[in-house]
Design goal:
The structure holds two protein chains of two kinds. By secondary structure, chain A is α+β, with helices and mostly antiparallel strands. Chain A is built from seven helices and six strands, in the order ααααββββαββαα. The longest helix of chain A is centred in the middle third of the chain and has 20 residues. Classes of the chains: A alpha+beta, B alpha+beta.
């Protein structure tokens, strides 16, 4: 699968611990936390691990605290967890990388992203309305207001996007 | 039509005063002509050049040299003598003397004269189309036409593809090509394969030779900037330095090319006028075709934004009857310039799609149009479910006769049911992606599946996501330049030549999602490629290489954004979702607002206001790269020729920035006040991205 892990690999608890690890581990950890989030959405551990190119055993080893074995023998995610997550977040101030250790906060950020991507792909901004004025609190206790301004989202989302039409036509 | 501003207004006034003095103050001819330059100096009673020639029994038409006699003594346009003297020759007096007289026969000055000769001219077909579509009559200041003069004595008879005789000294070459192409369908002396090849060859020949070569420009690929002189709409030329200047092709003559495209636009405008005169409308139109909204008997059909209301009070448009459409086609019969098979019937052909290929009965077809070049035609079955118009085997893509019950491809032979001679779904915008079900297969039927899902959803039927929805959307490119091969060199280290990645090998390319770029990279200079790997299961498990930096990154389809070492790439499902909601940015909705992704219903032309004039090259060599997602910056695609006099930064942005309090600017831009002071004083110019940011701040303040 993705990469073998050594016995020394433990879940990072702080940003410093995370930053000290090699790039491969950081990438692995990011995937592991995303697998846990997918399992919380109801996807099986095997399926979620496959989506992120991981061996389910690696996920259990690194994020076992966030999972439990149900009576039917399947792994399920606990209602919340304290795994460290480094998430890019679109705030009214800028696009910033924030550290969360509360799965509920990172879940809000995830849903905000889903609404943003839905808007940018289809133009449907209805899901973004739920986030107007909403803030999230990072691991340091700082509050950040989530971005819902459509023009600003269009601007940020168009970076590096080029199409035939955009060469010759721009929307006013 | 607006005239260009004078290059030398003082000189023009001086010349006008001299002409007035020579003709006599307040002089006029008895015909009413009073333009001093049209009057004969010293004549008594005063007479104009036209009346004098009439009296002498001479022609009242002059041969005007639109590019100046010194530049092109052969190209002339017949012009009434008075207009020639009073308007056209006068206008040329304003040209720089060297351009007008061109004593050394400089090709550059000749090109300048050509541009000056055509500045702000519109082709007559375009003027006619404008009158038809708007009902408004433009004011014509000057007019001229291009007249062929004689025949080249070097023309020789030839055989097209070795089979078709054409003698261009006796025949109209293009007419012969078109007529021969139409005759092909009845030729039994060549195989179907040869017929198909010849058909394509004649089509390309007709398109390229009748239009393409007259508009041919080559964008030079040199990376070093060179100084060029540009002739734009202002009277004076300007100089600038550009990296990829355009060079005209051997037969390049844009005025002639513009007449051909103008003629095509007029044909479409005629058709549009015929349809709208009957109260009808159309689902979409392309370069030479239109999908007219029509039903067997005609009548109202519901359509958001439609100007009419049906019995239920729902917005609607009027569908023409099939007979009305046939009548319109019949009106175009008189415009058919061809003879033989090509001369039979109208130049406006009712497509075969409208008839059942077996019974030839007329049938109702439907259209779903998303935006330019993205549409599909379909039928509805007994349950009202959509069925795409299909002429190829869904299993192997082989083109079959509609009567075939089994695919004629010897490697397939499966049972098929075809309902048309051609597939009628667009591949535009998707064609560069690999077949997600089998990356090695050339079968493009996954695009038909995608279209069917889109149509089903639009009609309110359930449509499940394709099974490849979560697979990374990946395309295949060929290593066609050292620039593409360079990032791969590291992978070649220590490998024998036979194992290395070499020129003309295939590579994989993927599409980074919005916000999917790894932290810290420039999205306009980031593109992931990978050695060719047909097994899609391996795509997420290997590192990909940034073509620009050579750095390696993981890719993922999970989450919503990239992180330090991983790029979030688009999946096929996401690609298709974006495709389905692609905005038609050239059009406006029923309320006149520019179309957005959620706009549906009847559209209208989007009106534009000219805010800024920028000169760009005609040609872009990178359109294929844009399609495959290899290029992410406009600057990489076309050449811009910056005119300092029309520079947006100097003429618009800087004055507006000075109106904004410095503290407000500093807060909005996060730039230091000292840097902003330097910028506002004109002592420094910010980076392109900061310029863009400042412009956006101004736009936001304006719209607030």
């Amino acid at each position: 699968m993705h990469m073998p892990i050594s016995h020394d690999d433990r879940p990072p608890k702080t940003l410093e611990e995370y930053s000290e690890r090699p790039a491969e581990f950081q990438d692995l950890w990011n995937r592991v936390t995303q697998v846990v989030s997918r399992v919380r959405e109801g996807v099986s551990l095997a399926q979620a691990s496959r989506e992120f190119g991981l061996d389910p055993r690696v996920v259990i080893r690194l994020a076992g605290s966030a999972l439990f074995k149900a009576k039917n023998g399947r792994y399920e995610a606990r209602a919340s967890d304290r795994l460290l997550r480094l998430l890019m977040t679109l705030t009214t101030e800028d696009r910033v990388e924030l550290v969360f250790n509360d799965s509920q906060m990172s879940s809000i950020v995830g849903r905000h992203w889903a609404a943003v991507q839905r808007y940018l792909r289809t133009g449907d901004s209805s899901a973004l309305q739920d986030f107007q004025g909403q803030s999230v609190t990072d691991a340091s206790g700082n509050k950040w207001q989530l971005l819902t301004d459509l023009d600003e989202l269009d601007r940020l989302g168009s970076a590096g996007v080029l199409s035939f039409e955009s060469i010759y036509a721009r929307i006013a | 039509m607006k005239k260009s501003p004078l290059r030398d207004p003082e000189g023009a006034a001086r010349r006008a005063a001299t002409a007035k003095r020579r003709a006599g103050v307040n002089s006029r001819c008895e015909c009413g002509e009073q333009r001093p330059l049209a009057l004969i100096p010293g004549s008594s009673p005063t007479i104009c050049a036209k009346c004098q020639r009439e009296r002498e029994g001479r022609s009242i038409m002059d041969s005007h040299h639109p590019f100046g006699k010194a530049n092109d003594p052969e190209t002339t346009t017949p012009t009434p003598v008075n207009d020639h003297r009073a308007e056209l020759s006068k206008a040329q007096e304003d040209w720089p003397k060297r351009t007008r007289e061109n004593p050394d026969g400089s090709p550059l000055l000749r090109a300048a004269a050509c541009v000056r000769g055509f500045v702000e001219w519109y082709s007559l077909p375009d003027v006619a189309a404008s009158v038809l579509l708007t009902g408004r009559i433009p004011k014509i200041v000057d007019a001229f036409f291009l007249q062929p003069n004689g025949k080249l004595n070097t023309l020789k008879p030839t055989k097209l593809r070795g089979t078709i005789d054409v003698d261009p000294s006796r025949q109209d070459f293009f007419r012969a090509v078109i007529e021969e192409r139409r005759r092909l369908s009845k030729r039994m002396d060549i195989s179907e394969t040869d017929r198909s090849r010849l058909d394509k060859a004649l089509k390309v020949l007709a398109n390229a030779a009748s239009y393409g070569i007259y508009a041919e420009m080559h964008r030079l690929e040199s990376e070093s900037k060179i100084k060029v002189k540009c002739f734009g709409i202002d009277a004076d030329s300007f100089e600038c330095r550009v990296a990829h200047p355009d060079e005209p092709g051997e037969y390049c003559f844009p005025p002639l090319a513009s007449l051909i495209t103008g003629g095509a636009r007029l044909m479409l405008s005629l058709l549009e006028t015929c349809v709208t005169e009957l109260g009808g409308t159309y689902a979409m139109e392309d370069t030479d075709s239109m999908a007219v909204v029509a039903t067997e008997k005609g009548g109202l059909i519901p359509c958001a934004g439609g100007p009419l209301r049906n019995d239920d009070g729902v917005e609607a448009i009027k569908a023409l009857s099939w007979q009305q459409v046939d009548d319109i086609a019949e009106r175009f019969k008189s415009l058919n310039p061809y003879s033989g098979v090509a001369g039979e019937g109208s130049v406006l052909k009712i497509e075969d799609d409208n008839r059942d290929p077996l019974t030839l009965q007329r049938r109702q077809i439907f259209c779903l149009a998303i935006s330019a070049k993205r549409y599909t035609l379909f039928l509805k079955n007994n349950q009202g479910k959509p069925v795409l118009l299909r002429g190829t085997c869904p299993f192997c893509g082989h083109r079959n006769e509609p009567a075939n019950k089994f695919c004629k491809n010897p490697n397939c032979g499966r049972r098929i049911h075809l309902n048309n001679r051609e597939d009628r779904w667009s591949e535009h915008g998707l064609g560069h992606l690999l077949n997600p079900t089998d990356p090695e297969s050339e079968n493009r039927d996954w695009i038909a599946d995608a279209w069917l899902s889109i149509v089903k959803r639009s009609l309110g039927f359930p449509a499940s996501a394709p099974r490849f929805a979560s697979t990374p959307a990946v395309g295949r490119i060929t290593i066609s330049s050292p620039r593409v091969l360079q990032p791969m060199q590291k992978l070649n280290e220590g490998k024998s030549y036979s194992d290395q990645i070499k020129p003309f090998n295939f590579l994989l390319t993927c599409h980074v999602d919005r916000f999917g770029h790894p932290s810290g990279v420039d999205p306009e200079r980031f593109h992931l490629i990978s050695p060719y790997q047909p097994d899609s299961r391996r795509w997420l498990k290997t590192k990909w290489i940034d073509q620009y930096s050579g750095k390696q990154y993981w890719i993922t389809t999970g989450g919503h954004h990239g992180n330090r070492h991983t790029a979030r790439v688009k999946t096929y499902g996401e690609f298709l979702e974006e495709y389905e909601y692609h905005a038609e940015t050239k059009c406006a909705d029923a309320g006149g607002n520019i179309c957005r992704r959620q706009t549906v219903g009847l559209l209208q032309r989007g009106h534009v206001e000219i805010e800024q004039i920028k000169y760009i090259g005609k040609e872009s060599n990178s359109l294929e790269e844009v399609e495959t997602g290899m290029v992410h910056s406009e600057q990489s695609v076309y050449t811009e020729y910056p005119d300092p006099r029309r520079d947006e930064w100097q003429t618009k942005v800087l004055p507006a920035l000075k109106e904004i309090p410095l503290s407000d600017l500093a807060m909005a831009t996060a730039m230091s006040p000292s840097a902003l002071k330097e910028i506002r004083a004109g002592r420094s110019r910010p980076h392109r991205k900061n310029q863009q940011r400042l412009k956006e701040i101004l736009d936001n303040r304006r719209t607030r």
